[in-house]
């Protein structure tokens, strides 16, 4: 028997400290992974970028609204009181989320479905005193409340059909206007000069209806004014509107106009009727750097079918003025007839009076200012006005060069066309330009018109072969791919 046998005792087990080290390493790794996970989520929450990839930029607020939200001085509470089955609920919710995100923490948003969240709806009724018997948006600033009904946020197709299709969504316009109303408190007052004739009664009615609609949206009140019945422009006038005057002002009325323009903060919007006989008004405008010319802006040519004479002017907006900068990417059609404006930019008299003139709208290159516009085929000659042709301009008196100083100034906008607000020819961009002009002349620089979002319905036409292909992909191929991957994972685990 051999003296010794091989040692068959089991190998010693790992020591306890080594096992604790592995466990501690695992714990540290888990903590590190969780820290990275929550850190990345925190950073992505605070610093992130958003893109609106919709064709119509449906989820992007206008520059006017963004500028206003950037200057909010009061907290705003908004409640989205819409049933979730409403056709515009997704649009309204997405719109109000943009207000909350861009409101710098001053905009608080709550969504309440009155059919499901009955308790919250009743609580909101008690807080606001509103009936809330239909879909809408509640906006509250301090103790002032405004309820925007669903129909105020949409424009529907006209016709006799039972269900009228929504063609435009103007929720942003309605919400921003309501916020202005609640934050500013009282309405601004614009006086529209009447009693001086007009192209037609319908044109005057269209202009007043359009301006009245803008007033409801932009928080100003439109009031009639007959200069023959007063001794001076009312002291509470934030702006004076002269739209399409056919007959001239009297000497006394011109003196009233000069006295108003000489006040500390005056606002004027003058939309000229080229066919009007208003030499005194023209002289007043000329003293402030804008002289209307006795011409018509047009384009004429001889074609195989006869003479073509075009009075409707295709024009472009200036991209530097705060009035037209939001519209610079758009083109505008000046309907009816327009007259050109002679603008004096560098004038010693104007500089001494601290008056600045700026062009707002210019005609496209093919148009010119024609003196003999009644001819069958007018041609450009020496007495006519050649490019650049200006159709609208702004005048500001009392401005300061230091942008850090906030000073209210006297402001005027002159347009060589009185047909921009005609019901049959008015475009959304025309309305936006007028809205921007009105806001500018009352020193509300950064707020202009807000164009409604068009609502489009898209239909995809599929032939039978495409329908069959979609069926096989969604019913057979995709579920089969998932099943195949699952079987592969199961087989690999069985083999291990």
Automatic annotation (TrEMBL):
Keywords: Membrane, Transmembrane, Transmembrane helix. InterPro entries: DUF7088. The keyword Membrane applies. The chain crosses the membrane at residues 20-40, 469-491. It comes from the Bacteria. Residues 56-131 form the DUF7088 domain. This is DUF7088 domain-containing protein. It comes from Prosthecobacter dejongeii.
């Amino acid at each position: 028997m051999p003296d010794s046998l091989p040692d068959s005792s089991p190998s010693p087990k790992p020591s306890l400290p080594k096992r604790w080290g592995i466990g501690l390493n695992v714990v540290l790794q888990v903590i590190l992974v969780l820290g990275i996970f929550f850190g990345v989520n925190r950073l992505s929450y605070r610093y992130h970028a958003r893109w609106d990839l919709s064709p119509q930029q449906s989820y992007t607020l206008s520059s006017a609204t963004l500028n206003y939200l950037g200057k909010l001085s009061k907290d705003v509470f908004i409640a989205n009181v819409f049933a979730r089955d409403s056709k515009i609920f997704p649009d309204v919710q997405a719109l109000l989320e943009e207000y909350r995100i861009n409101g710098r923490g001053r905009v608080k948003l709550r969504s309440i479905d009155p059919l499901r969240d009955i308790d919250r709806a009743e609580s909101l009724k008690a807080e606001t005193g509103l009936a809330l018997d239909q879909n809408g948006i509640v906006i509250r600033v301090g103790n002032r409340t405004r309820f925007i009904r669903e129909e105020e946020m949409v424009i529907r197709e006209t016709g006799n059909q039972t269900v009228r299709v929504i063609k435009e969504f103007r929720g942003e316009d309605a919400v921003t206007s309501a916020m202005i109303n609640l934050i500013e408190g009282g309405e601004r007052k614009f006086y529209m000069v009447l009693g001086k004739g007009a192209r037609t009664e319908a044109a005057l009615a269209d202009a007043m209806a359009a301006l009245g609609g803008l007033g409801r949206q932009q928080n100003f009140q439109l009031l009639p004014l007959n200069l023959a019945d007063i001794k001076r422009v009312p002291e509470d006038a934030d702006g004076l509107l002269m739209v399409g005057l056919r007959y001239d002002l009297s000497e006394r009325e011109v003196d009233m106009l000069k006295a108003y323009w000489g006040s500390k903060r005056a606002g004027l919007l003058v939309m000229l009727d080229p066919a009007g006989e208003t030499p005194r008004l023209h002289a007043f405008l000329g003293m402030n750097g804008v002289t209307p010319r006795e011409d018509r802006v047009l384009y004429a040519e001889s074609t195989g079918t006869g003479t073509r004479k075009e009075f409707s002017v295709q024009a472009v907006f200036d991209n530097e003025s705060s009035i037209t900068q939001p519209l610079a990417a758009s083109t505008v059609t000046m309907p009816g007839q327009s007259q050109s404006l002679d603008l004096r930019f560098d004038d010693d008299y104007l500089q001494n009076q601290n008056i600045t003139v700026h062009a707002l709208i210019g005609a496209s290159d093919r148009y010119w200012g024609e003196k003999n516009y009644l001819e069958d085929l007018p041609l450009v000659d020496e007495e006519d006005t050649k490019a650049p042709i200006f159709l609208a301009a702004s005048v500001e008196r009392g401005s300061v060069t230091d942008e850090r100083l906030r000073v209210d100034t006297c402001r005027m906008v002159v347009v060589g066309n009185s047909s921009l607000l005609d019901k049959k020819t008015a475009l959304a961009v025309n309305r936006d330009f007028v809205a921007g002009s009105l806001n500018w002349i009352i020193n509300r620089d950064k707020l202009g018109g807000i164009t409604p979002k068009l609502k489009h319905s898209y239909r995809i036409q599929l032939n039978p072969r495409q329908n069959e292909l979609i069926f096989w992909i969604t019913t057979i191929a995709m579920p089969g791919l998932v099943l195949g991957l699952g079987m592969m994972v199961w087989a690999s685990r069985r083999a291990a």
